[in-house]
Amino acid sequence: MPKIKTNRSAAKRFRKTGSGKIQRAKSGKNHFTGKKASKSIRNLRKGTLVSQADEKRIARLIPY
């Protein structure tokens, strides 16, 4: 079997944790932040886990 190619666009958006779960960045931080509270913008810095419904699909894109 040949090696599976990593989807490069997915590799820039997701990363695997030590336990094998997939982590993603939160959306809504690029623009229109003037109307958002500082607290909500600060909370957007933290990463979060991908939902279980999407996890299998994204795991195929980043096999390594």
Structure, described:
There is one protein chain. By secondary structure, the chain is of the alpha+beta class. The chain has one domain (8-61): Factor Xa Inhibitor (Irregular), CATH 4.10.410. Helix content is 34%, strand content 12%. The protein contains 3 helices and 3 strands; from the N terminus they run αββαβα. The protein has helices spanning 8-13, 38-43, 52-61; strands spanning 14-16, 22-24, 48-49. It has a 3-stranded antiparallel β-sheet. The longest helix has 10 residues, at 52-61. It is elongated, with a radius of gyration of 15 Å. The protein starts with 7 loop residues before the first helix and ends with a helix. The mean pLDDT is 96.
Number of strands: 3
Tally of contiguous helical segments: 3
CATH class: Few Secondary Structures
Mean pLDDT: 96
Shape: elongated
Features:
64 residues; Factor Xa Inhibitor; three-stranded antiparallel beta sheet; elongated
Task: Offer a concise description of the structure.
34% of the residues lie in helices and 12% in strands. It has 64 residues and is of the alpha+beta class.
Topology:
Layout: H1 8-13, E1 14-16, E2 22-24, H2 38-43, E3 48-49, H3 52-61
Antiparallel strand pairs: 1-2, 2-3
